[in-house]
Structures are given as structure tokens and as C-alpha cells.
Design brief:
There is one protein chain. It is built from 23 helices and 15 strands. It has 605 residues and is an alpha+beta fold. The protein has four domains: 1-41, no CATH class; 45-168, no CATH class; 181-267 and 283-441, no CATH class; 451-573, no CATH class. The strands form five sheets. It has a seven-stranded mixed beta sheet, sandwiched between helices. Strands 1-2 form a two-stranded antiparallel sheet. Strands 3-4 form a two-stranded parallel ribbon.
């Protein structure tokens, strides 16, 4: 039996049976009879000890008889401000200062004090780092947060991977509502007052979809958006859902109106995994999902005259089913790519000859019904609509929207959940789009200006520098009043301008390019500062509307100006001819009759 330690000289000391040491009276608790307990406060039930200085804390660690790899359990209260500067173990300080790279880990003493201090240091830096991340999670990226954490002493041993992990956890607390991403996204939309009545779940076959509509842009643009653009993308979420978007064309830019996430439901697991087949959507399911989605958009007051989409048959069927008589404009880029790769080699007549020589009548019937007939031709030809010419030729404004979503927002996440994508769209993408739309509508070009304005200004000045022969205006039947010209440059121009049109106008001021607006009917451009030269201004019988820089003409004069194919000088030269001029309507009717007879011959086997 070990002998008891020597009694201290002080009479106010009490012996602790577990610590085997004498402590002051204030270190013990007393019972009702006024007698002290056998053990000090360090061994109470709550194991809570108030430590006011560093010596008390180190004394506790010296009497901690546990293994070095175990965590010190219990609740301890102490003041960090009273700790010395060299707080922490020797190894932690050397690594933090960059001096411990060449030190052998096995040569360091692993005492209870060092183990406890290491665990305490981990707790401290985690608390400090988590507090910094929580304060910056909504405003800065993980890399930016990591750079700030490195500036504080507690953040020196922290790695960038730890910061990214803690940032993900803090970020998930903002948008995650359920373990199921689809359910979580639905709950997230229900909590937002802007989307509580502007979202819905659609089902069809083995598909289900979540659609939500931008209430602010819908209220602003309902009834005034003649052109819509629709497209889909993939790779935005870990669930493999396709993301559809509908954008309205405003001043040559795209403003999002609605989104739809379409999910392919997985069948129950099969008994024989070797016979597993690829999962595909049920026939017609995608079309019905999009039809329900667009019906909601129609109920909000959108009746467009033109909808630009790619060549997806489901989108075409859904659009034509919801808006009967709408002009479906296929993406001009897809048509141009097909023409440059395949269609330029064979025209319709050559294909018919090739099929007829080989007796491939069914092949020709397929080509004619699906691609050569007027019903398919009007999907991509801009001239198929006699009422107006759409501004949108491609789906590039949606493609630009996808680039912004993926490169500016979702690039921070690796395979994000669907609810995270919905949160990014509703809290980041759509507010930015609303701000941009308000800047455009109010004319605040300092905040945002459409990129096409600079391109239009550059093209106008380029055409103005070219030399123009006035006689060519008669040859190409240039009509600056209606803004039309028969030259090749005008037909292929992005902005429907050419040197002949530009030649007929006075030099516009720089402010004109900031306010000029595009129209879908002639004149295709209007502005107060677009003024015709006197020699090309309307003659007597026409009255000018200087407010918009356009001309209103009488019905008789307008008809003669539109349908006459000869200038006055040419009519005077041919005035001596005895042959009577044939009206244009008769020539067009005869041409259509000849073409119809040729098509009837092709149908005969």
C-alpha cells in the first residue's frame, strides 16, 4: 500500500482521494452537515470546472489519467483571453509556422497534455471557421472564403477541402427542405410568396415535371411579348432531369418567363440485372408534359405570334397544340448547319430524279411529306409568315441563358441537387433578369445595354462608308419608306440593312443608336432621328409622320408603291410599246399554277 503524502503545513487544505493531492477549501463541495466531500469538484457529476487561469487548466491536464488518443470528455468553462501566447502543442505551433516539415513524428513526445491541446485546438478552429463561413456563405465563393480564413490565426491549419465541405453544409441549410430533391424543390417554391401560386407538378406516363413561373416578368410582359423562345438543356443537376425554359424577346435580349424540370421515373428493379434495358420516356409523354406547362403560360395572358425552338418534335407538337396558328420558327443555325453538311449537295429536283430513276417512290414520299412540303418549309423559312418577319432567327438567347446559369452560378457545385438548382434560379438568376429588364424598359443604358446595339451601330457606319450608285436604287427597287431592298446584302443582313437603304437617310446622331427600335413589320426600324434625304422623301400625296420617322401613305399610293416592279423612268421608256403590262398578281397566280401542275406530275407513279 502506497504511503499517504505528507500533510501540508497549511490548515486550509483538504485531501482529494482521487487526485491524491491536497487542494484549497474552495475546491470542494460541502454536505448539509458542513463536512467536505472526499473528492474535489473535478470529479463531480457534471464535471464542470471554472478555470480562470492557465495554471488551473494545466493542473487538470496533468491529472488526466487517460490514453493520449482519447478525447477529454466533460464540460469545461475557461477564459481564452487569459491563456498565454504559446497556446497549443509544440507540434501544432511548428506546423503552423512552417518549421516542422523536417521533424520526425516518432521523436515527438505524445503526452496527455499535447493530445488534449490538439483536440482543443481542433474544436476552436472549427468553431471560428464555421462562424466565418456562415457569415459569408451567401456572398462569397469557397475560394474567397478560404483566402479570408487564412488571414486569421485559427485558420492556418485549415485546408481548402475542409472549407469547401463546411461551406457546402452551411449552404445546404439555406435551400434543403427534404432528403428527396424533388420534394424539397416543391417545398422551397411553396415557401416563397412569389412562386406559391406560380408552380405546379405535371405527370404523364413515366415522366413527372416541376414547372414554376416568374411572376414579376409575367406581370410586366403579359400581352406584350409577340415572340417567345423555348429550349432545353441537360447536366444542370445530379438527378439527370432536363431543364426547359421559355424566354421572351425584349429589345433583342431574352427575359425568362418559366422553367420546367422533367424527370424520368425509374422502374422497379428487375430480377435479372443482365437483362436491363435502357430507360426511355413513354411515347407522347414529353409532348403532354410540355403541353400542360405551356397551357399554364397561356392562362397568364401570353399569346405569341412566333415561337422559336430547335428541331425537337415534342416541342413543336406542344407549341402548335397550345397556340393554334402560331408561327413556329426553327433555329436558323440548325437549318444552316444541315444545309452546309447535306442539303447543299442535292436540291429537291435532283432528289426526285434520283428516286424516280431507282423506283424509290416511298422514299420520295417520305422526303416530301416530312421535309419538302410547305407545312415543313414554313417551320424554318422566315418569309413563310406574310404578316411579319420575326426578330429571333435562332435560339441563341436561350443558349446564352444556359451559359450564364452553368458558368456563373452552378460551376461552384459538383452535381447539384434539383432543389439547389431551383433555389439558384429563383434567388439569383431571375432577380438579375428582372433588374436587367427594368433597366431596358426605362432606357437606363448605363446599367444595361443590349449587345446588338453596338453591332448595329458598327454595321450602319460600315455601310455608310461604301460608295453607292444612285441608279442601282432603281435596279434593286430600293424603298426606304418601307425599308426594303432587293439586293443580296439586304436579304442576308442580320439587321435588314444595306448600303442602299443607309444611303437614303441623313447621317444619324450618336443618340439615335441608343433609342432606335426594331419592328417585325415594315418599316423594320423606327426612330425620331431617322430622317430621309429630301430627294428620297415621299412625294405629294404622302404625309410624313416625323414623330417616328416613318411615312403614312394613302391606300392607293401604298398599293402602287408596293406592287409596282418598274420605276417611272422605265415606264416612260416602255410607254411606246403596244403590249399591255401584265399585273403582278396575274404573274404570281400563273407561277403557282405551273408549280402545282409539276407537283401533281411528281405524285403520279
Amino acid at each position: 500500500m502506497d504511503p499517504l503524502p505528507d500533510l501540508p503545513e497549511e490548515t486550509d487544505k483538504i485531501f482529494c482521494s482521487k487526485c491524491v493531492k491536497f487542494y484549497g477549501v474552495d475546491e470542494f463541495k460541502f454536505n448539509k452537515d458542513g463536512k467536505p466531500q472526499r473528492t474535489c469538484k473535478r470529479h463531480g457529476r457534471k464535471r464542470a470546472l471554472e478555470l480562470d487561469d492557465w495554471d488551473s487548466f494545466t493542473r487538470l491536464l496533468r491529472n488526466w489519467n487517460k490514453l493520449a488518443n482519447q478525447i477529454l470528455e466533460g464540460s469545461y468553462i475557461f477564459d481564452l483571453d487569459t491563456l498565454p501566447v504559446n497556446f497549443g502543442s509544440l507540434r501544432a505551433l511548428e506546423v503552423a509556422n512552417g518549421d516542422g516539415d523536417d521533424i520526425d513524428r516518432n521523436t515527438l513526445l505524445r503526452s496527455e497534455v499535447n493530445a488534449a491541446m490538439h483536440d482543443l485546438g481542433v474544436v476552436i478552429w472549427k468553431a471560428v471557421v464555421q462562424e466565418v463561413i456562415n457569415s459569408l456563405v451567401s456572398t462569397k465563393t469557397p475560394s474567397e472564403i478560404y483566402r479570408e480564413i487564412r488571414q486569421i490565426p485559427e485558420g492556418k491549419p485549415v485546408t481548402r477541402h475542409q472549407v469547401y465541405y463546411l461551406w457546402q453544409k452551411a449552404n445546404a441549410e439555406i435551400w434543403q427542405r427534404d432528403l428527396d430533391p424533388f420534394v424539397s424543390a416543391t417545398m422551397l417554391l411553396s415557401e416563397d410568396s412569389r412562386y406559391r401560386d406560380h408552380h405546379a407538378v405535371f405527370t404523364a406516363g413515366n415522366l413527372r415535371a416541376l414547372g414554376f413561373f416568374a411572376s414579376e416578368t409575367i406581370e410586366k410582359l403579359r400581352g406584350s411579348a409577340p415572340q417567345l423562345v423555348m429550349d432545353s438543356t441537360f447536366g444542370t443537376n445530379s438527378g439527370g432531369m432536363d431543364l426547359f425554359a421559355v424566354l421572351a424577346e425584349v429589345e433583342g435580349t431574352g427575359v425568362p418567363l418559366a422553367y420546367c424540370l422533367v424527370e424520368l421515373l425509374k422502374p422497379p428493379p428487375q430480377a435479372n440485372p443482365a437483362q436491363k434495358k435502357p430507360i426511355r420516356a413513354d411515347p407522347g409523354a414529353t409532348t403532354y408534359i410540355l403541353q400542360q406547362f405551356l397551357e399554364r403560360l397561356k392562362n397568364f395572358g401570353f399569346n405569341p405570334r412566333c415561337v422559336a425552338i430547335d428541331k425537337d418534335s415534342s416541342e413543336i407538337a406542344a407549341v402548335t397544340a397550345v397556340w393554334s396558328g402560331v408561327k413556329v420558327q426553327l433555329c436558323y443555325w440548325h437549318v444552316k448547319r444541315a444545309s452546309s453538311t447535306t442539303l447543299h449537295r442535292e436540291c429537291a429536283a435532283e432528289m426526285h430524279t434520283w428516286c424516280k430513276e431507282r423506283g424509290y417512290y416511298r422514299l420520295w414520299a417520305y422526303l416530301y411529306i416530312n421535309w419538302y412540303c410547305p407545312e415543313q418549309w414554313k417551320l424554318w423559312a422566315r418569309a413563310a409568315d406574310p404578316t411579319d418577319i420575326p426578330v429571333v432567327k435562332t435560339t441563341m438567347i436561350v443558349e446564352s441563358h444556359w451559359r450564364t446559369l452553368k458558368h456563373d452560378y452552378l460551376h461552384r457545385f459538383n452535381r447539384p441537387r434539383v432543389d439547389l438548382v431551383v433555389w439558384v434560379l429563383t434567388s439569383r438568376v431571375l432577380p438579375d433578369a428582372v433588374h436587367r429588364m427594368k433597366a431596358i424598359s426605362s432606357g437606363q443604358f448605363r446599367i444595361f445595354k443590349a449587345r446588338w446595339r453596338d453591332a448595329f451601330k458598327k454595321q450602319w457606319r460600315k455601310e455608310a462608308c461604301k460608295t453607292v450608285d444612285p441608279d442601282k436604287l432603281k435596279e434593286y427597287h430600293t424603298n426606304p419608306v418601307n425599308w426594303v431592298c432587293a439586293c443580296k446584302s439586304f436579304l442576308h443582313s442580320r439587321f435588314l440593312i444595306c448600303k442602299h437603304i443607309v444611303y437614303c437617310f441623313e447621317l444619324p446622331s450618336p443618340d439615335c443608336f441608343e433609342t432606335v427600335s426594331r419592328q417585325t413589320v415594315y418599316p423594320f426600324w423606327k426612330d425620331e432621328q431617322l430622317i430621309l434625304r429630301p430627294e428620297y422623301a415621299p412625294r405629294e400625296g404622302l404625309r410624313t409622320r416625323k414623330l417616328h420617322g416613318i411615312v403614312e401613305m394613302q391606300d392607293s399610293t401604298l398599293s402602287s408603291l408596293l406592287y409596282s416592279s418598274e420605276s417611272e423612268s422605265e415606264q416612260d421608256e416602255d410607254g411606246d410599246d403596244d403590249q399591255e403590262a401584265v399585273p403582278m398578281e396575274i404573274l404570281v397566280a400563273e407561277f403557282r399554277e405551273v408549280m402545282q401542275n409539276a407537283m401533281n406530275l411528281l405524285r403520279i407513279k
